[in-house]
Amino acid sequence: MIDAREPRRFRVRAMAAVFASALLSFRGVSADRAPQRSVETPALRLVLDGDGRRATGLANRRTNTAWLRAPSPLFRVSPPGGTAAKLRAEPLANGQVRLRLTVTNTSDAPRKVGATFPLLEGIGTGKDANDLAYCFPKSGAAVSSQPIDIRRRYSGLFPLQFMDVWHRRDGGVYLMTQDLEAHPKTFWLRKAQRPAVDFGVDHAPRMLTPGEAWALPPAVLGAHEGDWHAALAAYRRWVATWYEPAAPRKRWFGEVFNFRQEFLHPNLGLPHGAFDPKAKALRLAEMVRDDAAAFGGVDFVHVFDWSHTPAHGRVGQYDPWAYLGGVRPFRREVAKLRAAGTPVGAYLEGYLISREADVAKRHGEEWQMLTAEGKPYARFGPGYVYPCPHVPEWREYLAAACERVCRQADVDGVYVDELGFGYQYACHNTAHGHEVPSVQVREEMGLLRAVRRSLPAGKVLYTEETPVDVATQLLDGSFTYAIAGADRRNNPARVNLTRFALPSLKTFEIIRCDRPLGNDLDAVRSIFFNGEGIWLEGPLSIEKWFPPEVRRLIARTHRILREHRDAFRSNDVVPLVPTLYPGLYANRFVARDKVVWTLYNASREAVCGEALDVRHVAGAAYFDAWNGRAVTARIRNDRAVVALMVPPGDVSCLV
Ligand SMILES: [Zn+2]
């Protein structure tokens, strides 16, 4: 296939370079007489031109295919003047090539410098564009061969650190940053009609003093047979080398599927919540009993507005006990719930303090975040102070409030609202002592670290969105909008890839926030397909929030998720495993003595017949957990072919 953008002599030269380096191994001479250097592993051969700025060849040695038709820059510094850049490439024993880039300010004035690194342009084997696909693991993921031009900041929008390009017959290549310090960066990928992909990582500009050298986070390139799963597996192997939760992950939290949000006060069109201000009486446990009957069980109760009082506002004071008739009645409700097997979490806000709170009066102005225009943030109106997560006193204040509610109310954990997205509040307040603008993902980590340190190890900590990979170590779990934000054009099964990349982190999908779920059966099916928890908000007494059909489906999925909870909280999970039907998707969850597959039929045709071809273990029996009946499998040696019935748009479950 000819790439019309590049002149012909370039293509010839690139191919000559690959050929020359193959012959001459480490040092060679290309057709244009520039010195070449080839870095080689059993998986990959990267040929660099003389000054090491460009790749003139990229070969996947596993499939014996060439992935560059023309030279590609490996990085770009902007603006380029007044700097020197040095790229080092080294082969790794695991088959990857590691790249390190250092950019030095060689001018005699401070310079603001940005860099794209790593960078690969024109990646493909030149064959049919329809067979060239990519995995761009943004929140919700884009895994497709459709043309795309996409950028996502490393944040809740793009929490992982790799991208993959593969061809149906030729295997693929991936790039991965290996950044444990949450440097600000943006992942991007472009595929137009031609059979090639450009992808890279833009690092936010930073100021370099004269002579200052900036060592960018290292990156690796890899090559593989098969599809993007190899890149996900490589990413997971890298994560395993450093990942260490700040507090042990709790098995019971991993087994929460029906996650119920409750209110003590008027909310969502209801004149009252669980608290009766006249009688100073609480009926939280009673409400949860009704919920459990409606949804087939409630595994966790999250109390949204426990801190709200008329005198001190919704959030920030965190001392509502006098208004609630003392802490004892609240503790009694918590004890009742726990006795019934339902742990309880308390809501706190990470970015807001009500102006009525004492601390807002004392520190509001000092802690307030400022926009790029130097104005106070006011996303949710002027009734709040927006404290900056960099401010040490605010970190300590929030950490102390989290610890206090766990101790006083004996709840099982705390939630910090608005954290995890990592992009909505860059702070420009120069009095705070952080860089301007602040690096929000890193400042949130500082805040969460303080909170985690204040909490007993047995308490859970969770946030509104799944933050970047390194930050998830500070959490037990998070809410996420991954399914709500997935685009069916490039993710027909709405898989939440992060849930499979970091499986010990518990996730609860929010489909619609503060609006009725209604009869969105498809959302409930998608959550089940991903083996995740569902965030349940809204009154049972107003039918549009949870019509009967959606309640029945939630109860049905809950029963199966709970029955096979050992599989759904397992670390041995693989998303989107092969099936025998186009449009039929399957995820695999492996427990000690069983394997569970969830299935989703994204096509318009019913699946009826042999649907999955799986590894067979002697003595294994096959069970259709969705319909509650045994299924027969056609066994041949170590394979079992299983027939299933899945209507269009529906899910199933094989155990
Ligand atoms: Zn600030």
| Average of per-residue pLDDT values | 94
| Content-based structural category | alpha+beta
**Largest sheet descriptor:** 8 strands, antiparallel
Q: Bound small molecules, which ones?
A: zinc ion
How helix-rich are the residues, as a percent range?
10-25%
The number of helices is: 14
Write down the oligomeric state: single chain
Rg value = 27 Å
What ranges have pLDDT less than 50 throughout 5 or more consecutive residues? 1-31
From the N-terminal CA to the C-terminal CA, the straight-line distance is: 45 Å
Bulk shape: flat
Assess the beta-strand content as a share of residues: 25-35%
**How many individual β-strands?**
40
Short précis:
The chain contains 14 helices and 40 strands.
